[in-house]
């Protein structure tokens, strides 16, 4: 199983970053490898989301159960897809006393594949996707919220 942990200090609030991460329907507009993304079901404390990835000729679809702690955290857990295991967490941590428009964004993803064939085919693709996610959301924040 692989683990990716990325973090960044950013001049956007925890709320602003939380809103971007939970706006799944917009993913295909700014994640170049995202073929489609949609909310399958909404719940009081989160959602079930489905995402299709297309990268380097590889096309896969997976869905996750996402539990939201408003403006603070998003926990993800695999429901189905090409993985044997996928879970992760976004954290949005205010800086200082929280009165500033700044936060630390952290992403941790743990994933693995059932078969060595899938690991060989999809693994490198998902490695690149996972490594670029935080940067993609930082760029999206700049587009949506400005400087």
Biggest sheet, strands in spatial order? 1-7-6-5-4-3-2
Order of helices and strands: EHHEEEEEEH
Class by alpha and beta content: alpha+beta
Mean pLDDT level: 91
| Poorly predicted residue ranges | none
The amount of helix comes to 25-40%
Distance N to C terminus: 38 Å
Number of strands: 7
If you had to describe this structure to a student in words, what would you say it looks like?
By secondary structure, the chain is of the alpha+beta class. Helix content is 29%, strand content 49%. The protein contains 3 helices and 7 strands; from the N terminus they run βααββββββα. It has helices spanning 14-22, 27-30, 116-145; strands at 2-10, 34-43, 46-55, 58-69, 73-80, 83-94, 103-113. A 7-stranded antiparallel beta sheet has the order 1-7-6-5-4-3-2. Strand 2 (34-43) and strand 3 (46-55) form a beta hairpin. The longest helix is centred in the last third of the chain and has 30 residues, at 116-145. The protein is globular, with a radius of gyration of 15 Å.
Tag the structure with descriptive keywords:
alpha+beta; seven-stranded antiparallel sheet; globular; 49% strand; 3 helices; 147 residues
